[in-house]
Amino acid sequence: MESNSNRKDGLAILLAFITVVFWSSGFVFTRLAVRYFSPFSLGLLRYGTATVVVVAIGLCKRIGLPKAKDIPLFLLMGALGFTFYMILFNQAMLTISAATGSILGATVPVMTALFSAWFFKERISVVGWFSIAVNFVGILILTLWHGTFSLESGLVLMIAAAVSFAAYNLMQRFATKNYTPLQATVYSIVSGTLLLMVFLPQLLEELSTAPLEGILDGIYMGIFPSAIGFILWAKALSYASHMNTVTNFMFVTPLLSTILEYIMTKEVPDTGTILGGTIILVGLILFSYRSRIGTLLAHRKNT
């Protein structure tokens, strides 16, 4: 039995690592693709491609259709996790590096926990609140490093994108009560794409002038970081005996994004990104291990 559990954990780790590599590449390829497409058109190109893939998988798996009463839920999830998130994300990547974007994107689990504490009254420990404060300091350093702050900045847009995706994660808790993770993912991606269809005329116009390189960038992001990435992540979570076995891999995303960005564009992160990013990652690690740290501190206090 233990051997079977170890095999499942090993498979979960492999799937999680592949997913994180795909997600890391998504930050870099977005930086490249926004040179040829507007944030709105790129969102539709990416998730239009993802929809083709997930619908094909859904048909093979015979997941069926959602109940009519649940369609508003999936439309909301599609708007939060894919429509609004994608527009904010793409707009942010016009002005920030892949490294900075991936660091801020990695704060989604913390924001999800904050939403859960607010809506579901889930308790956050002292260590958890301390780690959130550490994250906040790191974000301030990223935001204020160059001495300017603007509500129009890519940093603020990326934070807004992370908040939107955290809200999507929260809604997943309602969806997975009656649907499998695969069903919830497919229905949400399709819903998000339908909402992005208002940008179809703009996408068709930009496709006529975009180079093949830019089009392939968008298609790649739709297939790998989006469709396959989300499905592999759901699989990894289902195989893991402990959620941290999988979610801790999200800490690797900024490092992989930075390496891939340097390989593809030769762009090196500035001092503010390195310092602020390091502080944020420390905060994220503290947050991930908050229960273990809290238990250790309590044990030391009692001995």
Q: Mind explaining what this structure looks like?
A:
This protein is mainly alpha-helical and 303 residues long. The protein has a domain of 212 residues. Helices cover 79% and strands 0% of the residues. The chain is built from 14 helices and no strands. Helix 2 crosses helix 3 and helix 2 packs across helix 10. The two termini are 36 Å apart.
Q: Termini distance?
A: 36 Å
Shape designation: globular
Number of strands: 0
Structural class: mainly alpha
Low-confidence stretches: none
Number of helices: 14
Strand content: under 5%
Give the C-alpha Rg: 19 Å
The helix/strand series, from N terminus to C terminus, equals HHHHHHHHHHHHHH
Average pLDDT, to the nearest integer?
Answer: 85
**Strand count, sense and closure of the main sheet?**
none
Observed structural traits:
303 residues, mainly alpha, 79% helix
Q: Any chance you could write out the topology, listing elements then pairs?
A:
Elements lengths: L1 H32 L5 H23 L9 H22 L5 H8 L2 H12 L6 H19 L9 H22 L5 H16 L3 H8 L4 H28 L3 H5 L5 H13 L5 H18 L1 H13 L1
Helix pairs in contact: 1-4, 1-10, 1-12, 2-3, 2-8, 2-9, 2-10, 3-7, 3-8, 4-7, 4-12, 4-13, 5-7, 6-13, 6-14, 8-10
